[in-house]
Amino acid sequence: MPTLQQSVLVMLVEDDDGHRLLIRESLKASGIANDVVEMRDGEQALDYLTQRGPYRDPAKSPRPDLILLDIKMPKVDGFAVLEQVKANPRLRAIPILVLTSTDDQAEVNRCYALGANSYVVKPVRYEDFQERVRALGRFLDATRFPDQR
């Protein structure tokens, strides 16, 4: 797979350690991102994005170009993260790809209504999961991101 011609910082918001590892390794193998910032829950992601708490220093907390967001997480769920990011004038241009295991049409509709740019269901089988992330890599390779810096 060709590597991206643009430098992309991906924020991965996922509470499951195994899923985070699979996504990180699949992103790396697919050449999708130069850097991945990993968040374990929605509260941590919002702190990072709004530069609160341990993320106050913008040099150490650069703005992501893309957010990969799980929905079902502790503390603050993905719906709330999606809603708050898209309501924030400084953050709303960041593309958010919901990457979750739920294939419920009501949830899909809710995510798009809140401003999600895409909704991808995580396959159960490892091989299918890897192929889905490779397909994401091909899509991102052809995608231009907003200039946010």
Structural features, described:
By secondary structure, this protein is an alpha/beta fold. The protein has a single domain, classed as Response regulator (Rossmann fold, 3-Layer(aba) Sandwich), CATH 3.40.50. The protein has 5 helices and 5 strands. The chain has helices spanning 17-30, 42-49, 78-87, 105-113, 126-141, and strands spanning 9-13, 35-39, 66-69, 96-100, 118-121. A 5-stranded parallel beta sheet has the order 2-1-3-4-5, sandwiched between helices. Strand 3 (66-69), helix 3 (78-87) and strand 4 form a beta-alpha-beta unit. Helix 1 crosses helix 5 and helix 2 (42-49) runs parallel beside helix 3 (78-87). The two termini are 27 Å apart.
**Please, what is the CATH homologous superfamily?**
Response regulator
What's the level 1 CATH class? Alpha Beta
User: Averaged pLDDT, please?
Assistant: 85
Which stretches of 5+ consecutive residues score pLDDT under 50?
A: 1-5
Instruction: Give the amount of beta strand, in percent.
Output: 15-25%
Count of individual domains: 1
How many distinct beta strands?
5
Overall CATH architecture: 3-Layer(aba) Sandwich
Question: How much is the radius of gyration in Å?
Answer: 14 Å
Order of SSEs, N→C?
Answer: EHEHEHEHEH
Coarse morphology: globular
Helix content: 25-40%
Distance between the termini: 27 Å
Q: What is the number of helices?
A: 5
The assigned structural class equals alpha/beta
Largest sheet features: 5 strands, parallel
Which strand order spans the largest sheet, edge to edge or round the barrel? 2-1-3-4-5
